[in-house]
Write a structure and sequence with these properties.
Radius of gyration: 19 Å
Distance between the termini: 46 Å
Order of helices and strands: HH
Number of strands: 0
Length: 64
């Protein structure tokens, strides 16, 4: 699994070389996260998904 993440990090860096400044920054940040994962760190993990709001927020008057 470590090799998988290292490969993705390198791919992101390769793409960043040819990208515009905004995309380059995002790709380098992504590569950094992949590097953290390849080293077994949990700091690079994506945040937990948000909880789904209650369905009462979506239903209008008269709807169940």
């Amino acid at each position: 699994m470590e090799e998988f993440y290292r490969g993705f990090a390198q791919r992101a860096r390769d793409l960043a070389e040819k990208a515009d400044p905004f995309t380059k920054r995002r790709l380098l940040d992504l590569a950094k996260r992949y590097d953290l994962r390849s080293n077994g760190s949990t700091q690079g993990r994506a945040p937990a998904p948000r909880a789904t709001p209650p369905t009462t927020l979506f239903s209008g008057p008269g709807e169940a």
